[in-house]
Design a protein that fits this description.
By secondary structure, the protein is mostly helical. The protein has four domains: 1-42; 48-110, no CATH class; 119-229, DNA polymerase, domain 1, CATH 1.10.150.130; 239-270, no CATH class. The chain is 54% helix and 11% strand. The protein has seven helices and five strands, in the order H-E-E-E-H-H-H-H-H-H-E-E. It has helices at 3-42, 82-101, 119-135, 141-160, 173-186, 191-210, 239-253; strands at 48-50, 56-63, 68-75, 257-262, 265-270. Strand 2 and strand 3 form a beta hairpin.
Length: 272
Amino acid sequence: MPAEVRQRDKIGYLTLHFLLVAKNVKKMLSKKKDQTALKEIIGYTYPKLYVGKRWYIGFYAFDPVAGKMRRKKIKINFIEKAAGRRRYAGELCKRISRKLDQGWNPWIESENSRAYHTFTEVCEKYRRFIEKMFADGNYREETYVGYASYPRNMVKWNGSRKVPITYIYQFDKLFVSEFLDYVYIDRENTAQTRDNYLTFLRVFSSYLVQNSYLKECPTEGISVLGKRLHRKQRTIIPDGDMIRLYDYWGEEIGRCCLWVFDHDRLIIYLIL
């Protein structure tokens, strides 16, 4: 075979080999692109409980920045008993599954796993916190009694609702407003009592934000009713009783009081 023919066949073989390699590379790139697109379509896997030295709930969700599925873990070792962990995990998996079905993405809307702690559990932690503050002398007894009763009443009210909140992230502005309405309207408490509860809710909200349970204070924008509604009940002593009071006590306390009659009314000024 002439050298010219052999050279032409060699070039043809190399060209064909290059075309085949290029075609395979194109297929590989196309396949990888299709896999990425498929992952975007799938978007997530449903969460499930993983048991071991560290108990956690795990699931995958597509991360648009990384361009791949990433695993999300929510640790639950903070719950002491295994039965409690399984019960908590079951409820949380259902909640996360519903959120995933509704389009939630943990990598787009990055939410701290602490947001999934139960409402009652966080309230119990807060109760222990204020107990420690009282034991260390940071709270007066009357302050401690009030701060201990407010969350207890709030948890009790939440349990009586038709649809109570389960997780601490559900502690939002709507919940706060409805609880204050319950205190003021349903329980028929005074405006002052309602505002006292609002003060507690502000302190509690700050605690939640500082400990990464919430991102924002749900009490923002909720105002006190104001002192104009806090009317004190005063009783006027009848004139006859005031005169009898003067006749009885006048000589005893006359040295420290100034007794003045003004238009048939007795006015007593205490001189210090």
